[in-house]
Amino acid sequence: MPPAASNLPSTSPIIPGSQHLIESDNLFASIKSQSRMSTQHDIAPLPLEKSRNVGENRPDLTVDVITPEVSRPSTPYILKPMVDFDGLSWPSLGTKKRLEATPDEAAARLNNLSGAIRTLLECIGEDPNREGLLDTPMRYAKAMLYFTKGYEENLKNIVNNAVFQEDHDELVIVRDIEVFSMCEHHLVPFTGKMHIGYIPNNKVLGLSKFARIAEMFARRLQLQERLTKQVAMAIEEILQPQGVAVVMESAHLCMIMRGVEKTTATTTTSSMLGVFRKSTRTREEFMHLALRNNR
Questions:
Q1: CATH, domain 161-291, list 3.30.1130.10, 3.40.50.1220, 3.30.70.3550, 3.10.310.40
Q2: Which ranges carry the GTP cyclohydrolase I domain (predicted)?
Q3: pTM to 2 decimals?
């Protein structure tokens, strides 16, 4: 049972209307302010109806079903906004320093990271001076900077004026976007696929940008739950569409290589905003189209 709406911290609504989003200084306005208190729920109770699956051939088993009045909060902005302009969700102060580093500063960062990896090898009982490991600290340092290159990117550069006015108001889905990320709890990879859908509100985004947005957030230390919501909220922030839906399916090496060691376990997360959160039928349409080959 979700917490009472009256106890939810407030956030700002999405502000529609800018014709040239990338040129606006208000790109992040809706995620900086926290002034809205939600008191409604998006899924209203449905009229009492007979179950379609029970009692079709046995009238004596027919039961009445009804959608609960409160099935989920009207807003996903619980506790605090998941997208923060100066926090880890967006380039933080530390990552801005990394992005804007001089060549000398970048070299010093790489050397420090390489030294840390050398220490790690020594701590696990290895000899970092043996032939096979001689260059491993520097190789891994470069690899780690690549694995986390999303910290050096932001939405303005990713979108790059690829928002277009278009009179289209039907579902758009980009399926099977490959995602590679690093679990922030154990610093091991999790990989999978992301499916993104949205219903435009007179604005569409270049299709390749959806994959680039997913890549930007994935190339950071992440949780799958956070990653799914960040992508959905970023697309909502850019387009102010009627709704956004994101589903991600992935396998986590922290479950496969350690701990419970279940090699076939997968994790599915979703984030539904706007009409996808309000309408059961719209949400079901997206799920059917996005996951139709997985069933």
A1: 3.30.1130.10
A2: 115-289
A3: 0.73
